[in-house]
Amino acid sequence: MIKHGIFKANDIRGITEGTEPEWDEDGAYAIGAALVDVLDLTHAEGSLVVGRDMRVSSPRMSQAFARGVLSRGADIVDIGLASTDELWFASGRLGLPGAMFTASHNPGEYNGTKFCLAGAKPIHPAQLVEIADRAMNSAVPAAVEQPGTRTEQDLLPAYAEHLHSLVDLSGIRRLKVVADAGNGMAGHTLPAVLGVLDLDLIGLYTDPDGTFPNHAPNPLEPENLVDAQAAVREHGADLALVFDGDADRCFIIDERGEVVSPSAVTAMIAAQELAREPGATIVINKITSRSVAEVVAEGGGETVVTKVGHTFVKAAMAEHGAIFGGEHSAHYYFREFWGADTGMLAGMHVLALAGATEQPLSELVERFNRYAASGEINSRVDDAVAVMDRVADAFTGRGEQDRVDGLTISGPDWWVNVRASNTEPLLRLNVEARAEDQMAALRDEALGLIRAS
Question: Is 62 a catalytic residue?
């Protein structure tokens, strides 16, 4: 069983638990079989690498998917429990397409799948559409006479070794670091990556638990950062790293317990990467702060702007040979990591920067905070297009408008973006302006238009 709504712009996500699931094991089997045929796996790489997170439904859903893949004659390399960026690593290291069973930051009753081509390259949106069409609208193809084989491989040590090769943390001062895994997959990868370093590491919720007993796995929501903020203040820590459910995102909290804007983190890492490779290209999404492009220009680099979503950013990274990319949602992409996103590597870069100076983190990032931002504000609406049209009409004549990713209205020192979520039935509002009061006025006006009955 599959409901069409589980197929999103970049991946698959839908409810698997409770009385009204949106997909089940039969659906996962059909998607596995469809993937083999769409990618022509048996005549291409011949194998698929598969990982899963700690969600309650992940073992049964990933196993059903694997049976579908095997039924069509393709082989599977099963890396077991893994973070999403560990799956990207496996795809890059092995040169195989990949499938990761996770619903990232969604609640525990959800599950999903993120796909990639060999070398962690993004799957094309048209391929995802074809997978959906085959899985939903065609009879499940019969099993071939010679099914594929499944092998297991533990790539966690190699993943940690690769990350250590990209960031040298050996010469930094000893930092006190809070790491909030949120009962997600960072609890699986943290010991191998950061646990072996000379850090005073304070772990929060490091036991993987798909019921998320302590807080939801979405660091974009401020309430899910409260425990890490409190721990930083209680322990006098230098900073905190807060990961989402599948650990491909990392939020940073400074020594005061204040959240560091992901755009500021993007600008900070971009400046370091441009110092290493002058003239390099940096990729950002449509609603990343203007401060990033300013910092990149000051560093002699080029900025490429793309739509929100890992598929779009990874494609732009590959097309332009970009050295680094960042999104407002704390996804960070690295050329030396096959252009894929990795929260752990981003966290390591911040540790390297913080540990190279006696300055507190809040002072290090101060020059990258040039605008006031609303943060992402979500609203449930019946007709997203109609609401965006209403906002567009109200702002007519007050700035340039485009529909590259939702609706963006751009003024000389401000912008407003309204876009539908790729993963949830929500309309997202982001506002940025040079001054706090200017941002607040624009935010309140746009939000009033969005939520008008």
Answer: no
57, 104, 261, 329: the catalytic one is 104
Asked whether the beta carbons of 381 and 450 are under 8 A apart, the reply is: yes
Q: What is the pTM of this model?
A: 0.93
Instruction: Dump the DSSP string for 431-451.
Output: EEESSHHHHHHHHHHHHHHHT
Q: What is the pLDDT of residues 307-353, one digit of tens each?
A: 988 888 998 999 999 999 999 889 999 999 999 999 999 999 999 99
Q: Describe the crossing of helices 186-193 and 343-355 by its angle, rounded to 10 degrees.
A: 40
Report the alpha-carbon distance of residue 377 to residue 431 in Å, rounded. 9
Partners of 114 in the beta sheet? Answer: 100
- What the block records as the tokens of 232 is 């930083």
Query: Mean pLDDT across the stretch 154-160?
Result: 98
How far is 335 from 319, CA to CA, in rounded Å?
Answer: 11
| CA distance linking residue 128 with residue 71, whole number of Å | 20
Predicted local confidence at residue 49, as pLDDT? 98
Task: Assign 63 to helix, strand or coil.
Answer: helix
With CA atoms as reference, report the closest residue to 182 among 251, 236, 84: 251
Report residue 265 as tokens: 């983190």
> CA nearest 276: which of 316, 323, 343?
323
- Residue 156: which of 189, 111, 183, 132 has the closest Cα? 189
432 vs 375: CA distance, rounded Å: 9
